[in-house]
Amino acid sequence: MKVRVLGCSGGIGGRDQRTTALLVDDDVLIDAGTGVGDLEFDELLRIDHVFVTHAHLDHIAMIPLLVDTVGEARSMPIVVHGSPETLRILRSHIFNWLIWPDFSSIPDRGNPFLRFQEMHIGESANIGGGRRMTALPALHTVPAVAYQVSCDTGSLVFSGDTTYSEPLIAAINDIPDLRYLLVETAFPDALHDLAIASRHLCPSLLALFLDRIKVSPEVWITHLKPSRAQITVDEIGNYRGRFQPKALYNGLEFII
């Protein structure tokens, strides 16, 4: 199983700044930020599932355009998975005929371009080929989940947007075959109060988080805010725990 980074920035601006999206093999997205826009039409056509961590725009912006672009060319609906609260937000505020058409009823409800599938914390979805997606707890300003991507050879966890979360730490520690941990750190420590208020991590909170991790994955940092990315990375580099976190970048691939 292959996971490719399409976008991992906490903002836009410049060729390398794409918001959050991961491509699992060639048919599954985790979040659908602006990084999805770099895929060619044939690549978009192969996407069968989108697993959404939460409903903030930088993580869902390309779902409406994806469905609109390929819906008529597909024989099956794209399935958008998320917590009940996240899907309620998408239905109410995006696919509401005001911001965007309700593609779960186009061309009709019996044969739609889009289907929503609820996922609860701890629930797993089989996505074919022995691959599984499991929703893990996260803590953000809106209802949010992290995801475990797993197959017979190992697991990857993507935190989505979260602050320090004991339930997420406990869930991570229950994954003995965890090979990669992709965890957000949005702000430098100078903006610690903003990180707390917006329920993101900063380097000092990340250090507390990592010090509680008992398994031994590679740790990669996502969701750096472009204006403060370098100082945040430098501060993360001062971490003296047993991990050596590195910054994600577009095009990076993980083989599980």
From TrEMBL:
InterPro entries: Metallo-B-lactamas, Pdiesterase2, RibonucZ/Hydroxyglut_hydro. Pfam families: Lactamase_B_2. It comes from the Bacteria. SMART domains: Lactamase_B (SM00849). Gene3D superfamilies: Ribonuclease Z/Hydroxyacylglutathione hydrolase-like. Residues 18-223 form the Metallo-beta-lactamase domain. PANTHER family: 3',5'-CYCLIC-NUCLEOTIDE PHOSPHODIESTERASE 1. This is cAMP phosphodiesterase class-II:metallo-beta-lactamase superfamily protein.
